[in-house]
């Protein structure tokens, strides 16, 4: 699959690049600071740009089979949706947070919203934009990320509140789930909750 990765220099994004190349995808990395990717081999292309810049995103999206945004946000969603509609690229997966729709565990969700309210409001907006976009979207709501070694397994559900799994999720496992999602057409139009394995 020809896959454009936005947020490619991020802690999750770098795992997406490595695992995506291992899976045989033709990966184009899109980043504001592509010089941070010097150690990454096997990429099909590297594009410098800001995902808020419609012209830069428009150029990068051309000819791709899918876009994986390893960073969430409403301005990024907005430019992506416009560029993808224009170019006819339909498949998009974007990260979001499990806290956006969650109501339980009540204390943890309340505290998370207290500290990250602005980010969650913006992610909720981004989710709504994707859901209304008529693109082939999936939203991957991760729980609390860390940089521990991968377990090679995650817990996935389609509910607002987690149905199991661990609150902590390694970024390597999150990247695995993001790639599994973009590869799976059955997940088009779905918002997945992704937790660590129990
Ligand atoms: N952190 C968590 O605990 C958590 C929990 C649940 C879900 N998530 C979701 O997972 C995503 C990834 O998390 P992470 O911790 O791996 O993120 P991260 O390490 O902070 O990486 C974010 C990446 O996005 C890039 N970026 C940000 N704005 C951009 C723009 N306008 N144009 C181009 N690139 C841009 C950053 O590039 P620069 O280096 O240029 O800034 C960076 O490479 C989050 O965005 C969120 O949606 C995170």
Automatic annotation (TrEMBL):
Lineage: superkingdom: Bacteria
Pfam family membership, one: NAD_binding_10
Family matches, as SUPFAM superfamilies: NAD(P)-binding Rossmann-fold domains
Segments forming domain NAD(P)-binding: 7-185
One GO MF term attached to the UniProt entry: biliverdin reductase [NAD(P)H] activity
Cited InterPro entries: NAD(P)-bd_dom (IPR016040), NAD(P)-bd_dom_sf (IPR036291), Polyketide_Oxido-like (IPR051606)
Gene3D superfamilies xrefs: NAD(P)-binding Rossmann-like Domain (3.40.50.720)
Identification of the protein by name: Putative NADH-flavin reductase
Native source organism of the sequence: Nonomuraea fuscirosea
């Amino acid at each position: 699959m020809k896959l454009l990765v936005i947020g490619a220099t991020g802690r999750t994004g770098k795992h997406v690049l490595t695992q995506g190349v291992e899976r045989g995808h033709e990966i184009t990395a899109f980043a504001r600071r592509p010089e941070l990717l010097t150690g990454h081999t096997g990429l099909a292309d590297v594009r410098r740009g800001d995902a808020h810049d419609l012209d830069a995103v428009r150029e990068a999206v051309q000819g791709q089979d899918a876009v994986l945004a390893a960073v969430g946000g409403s301005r990024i969603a907005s430019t992506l949706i416009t560029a993808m509609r224009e170019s006819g690229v339909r498949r998009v997966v974007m990260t979001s947070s499990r806290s956006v729709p969650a109501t339980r565990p009540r204390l943890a969700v309340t505290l998370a919203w207290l500290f990250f309210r602005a980010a969650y409001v913006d992610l909720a907006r981004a989710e709504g934009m994707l859901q209304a976009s008529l693109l082939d979207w999936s939203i991957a709501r991760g729980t609390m990320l860390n940089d521990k070694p991968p377990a090679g397994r995650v817990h996935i559900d389609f509910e607002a509140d987690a149905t199991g799994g661990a609150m902590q999720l390694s970024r390597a496992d999150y990247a695995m789930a993001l790639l599994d999602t973009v590869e799976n057409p059955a997940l088009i139009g779905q918002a997945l909750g992704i937790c660590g394995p129990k």
